[in-house]
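Long-time lurker. I teach an intro course on protein structure, and each term I like to show students one example going from raw sequence to a predicted 3D structure in token notation. This year I'd like something fresh instead of my usual example. Would anyone be willing to generate the tokens for the chain below so I can use it in lecture? Attribution to the forum is fine with me.
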Amino acid sequence: MASDGRIVLADSEPTPGDATGIAAVVATLVERILEQGPDNLDVGGIGIGAAGFVDVDRATVRFAPNIDWIDEPLAEAVGKLVDLPVVVENDANAAAWGEYRFGAGEDTDDLLFVTVGTGVGGGIVHRGMLFRGGFGAAAEIGHLRVVPDGRLCGCGQRGCFEQYASGRALVRDARARVESDDPQAQPLLMVAGDGEAITGQMVTGLARQGDPMCVDLLRDVGQWVGEGIATLAAVLDPRVIAIGGGVADAGDLLLDPVRRAFEEHLPAGEHRRIAELRLAALGNEAGIIGAADLARTGG
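-- Reply from a regular --
Happy to contribute to a lecture. Here you go:
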């Protein structure tokens, strides 16, 4: 990545099933990109966005829910193979930093980034610094409990934010409408062919075409997102809130109900300055750009 946030060269490889092979895959990608680049390509370090709890040292993944990593010294493992400095950061934190530096938050020094995808993630930039907490695991906003004794979450708790305000929740609720033989679900069933084949992209696509049920489903998710970020804003008081992730591809179909619920549920909203809500600007590249910039600048 260039210093202005441009991705100069890109490549990809599937994540191996065996977590012990990930360092080798990263090293292979680095070597391949170096081979593709010009002779004067200057690479100062490697940034890795990892979906999990990353220790304050930005080197060790303490736990990853979808990869068999526990106390994984990822920076050391990759560094031994590529002979370059390595910085590891939580993937949502990296995306937040990317949006702050080069995207939706580049005109502020105070940003709350919320990613609404399969789950809910986030990152906090305060006074131009990425807020990581005392142990490196701050901003796990998807596990803010919003419904006491609510739906069981993969983290082991019940009622977490992401159980109601995520792509997973959107699909679950859409399938429930199909299984209940709701007549409004017929257009979605015709697209999917089967309730189990429903995806968030299908729901969003039909919502864009004006399908009433799919518009309602996105409105429900937006309502939950808005209520959740109102609670977060009461604690963090951000200037800008950027919303990204796959569900955010729905644009105003999601953002309008988010904004309404946010303003309705923000404590004492009529007596305070209210954060500006924006759609994230960098899409799926936010984490790549943020991780690379953290490796370059240290964040």
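Some talking points for your students: The chain has nine helices and ten strands. The mean pLDDT is 93.
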